[in-house]
DNA sequence: GCAAATGCTTAAAGCCTGTAAGAAAGCGAG
DNA sequence: CTCGCTTTCTTACAGGCTTTAAGCATTTGC
């Protein structure tokens, strides 16, 4: 029974990697245990249950995504900031589809206050500093930006754009131009 | 062993209803069988397997959604059409969260050509008739619209907008205004 | 009315989650 | 160093879900 050096952190990391490989939905406690050369029951010393594991992966993904977005945003403003943020978001989702799916989990109640949620909102709001938007338009714009990014990435990774020859990259770029346009001409409430 | 009158259509319908009640992910062959007062194995005479069932629900949802969208679009043009289409989309998702989740399934390969996918694309393109958009901007705009609708609805139902007092309806309305603005001022390629 | 097709049941294998009880490994004193 | 406490892992097991196979029952149609 040599110990395998399992910790909650390593489990989370491994689960995230596994999610990127085989899909978040297919990450199971059993598969994870197999990867550590350990019986499934052993993992329950480190995680509460399967949902707990998924929430940890979600929080990991949110934190990583926030880090990337923050790095992309540093030193930029206006459309530059918008494009850098959006690309960081999309690139992360493409590199880490499993993690990205995890980040989409509903994790109301408990965990979200753990920094990640707030960071995302603040960063999206930071993008808008380059545009002159007053409340409540600012909140509306934050929601629209988030929706467009998430919607695009989500449809693209689900294969929604593969039935038309137009490159997904080109439409993405056009969409960002369009968002910039609308932020500069935000309609009055 | 009185027969329960199970058919693939009834199963699909019941599965869709069940999805709206308990969530698409929680719809299982067993639960469905229970609802029909039948053993799980009995359902395999009508459906190939669990995935087949989910695909059928997805196609049902896509067809229903397309019907609603078509009805909303009839006789309208320009911003009127945009708003009606968008609201039909969002309302359907809110009324039928399970079906809507099903519609988001990846169903590449096989089933999509079954009309629904094409209908959606054509309708979104119909909205753009009221705006003067040439290819490839038209395709880009279709993708942006779809992304924004899906992203907004998806984030809203996942509870993403509940942490801020601004009403989700108000931001939705503002987002539609913004989309109308950007379609009328589509940036040059 | 009888045979073939169809719908349902039982049985069983395989995989997953999660709990409980116990063995083994590591750790911190004394 | 060694005794005992804590932690980690194992086995065992209960309960669910999926799916296949074999068989009985009910319909259907000739």
Structural summary, described in words:
2 copies of one chain form a homodimer. Chain A is mainly α and 189 residues long. Chain A has a single domain, classed as Tetracycline Repressor, domain 2 (Orthogonal Bundle), CATH 1.10.357.10. Chain A has 8 helices and no strands. The mean pLDDT of chain A is 92. Chain A binds a DNA duplex (30 and 30 nucleotides) through helix 2.
Number of strands of chain A: 0
Order of helices and strands of chain A: HHHHHHHH
Poorly predicted parts of chain A:
none
pLDDT averaged residue by residue of chain A: 92
Strand content of chain A: under 5%
Number of helices of chain A: 8
User: Largest interface, with Cβ-Cβ < 8 Å?
Assistant: A-B, 44 and 44 residues
Terminal residue distance of chain A: 66 Å
Could you please say which CATH topology of chain A applies here?
Tetracycline Repressor, domain 2
Helical amount among residues of chain A, as a percent range?
A: 55-70%
Shape assignment of chain A:
elongated
CATH architecture label of chain A: Orthogonal Bundle
Oligomer: homodimer
CATH class categorisation of chain A:
Mainly Alpha
In the residues of chain A, how many domains can be counted?
1
- Rounded to the nearest angstrom, the radius of gyration of chain A is 19 Å
Structural class of chain A: mainly alpha
Largest sheet, strands/sense/barrel of chain A: none
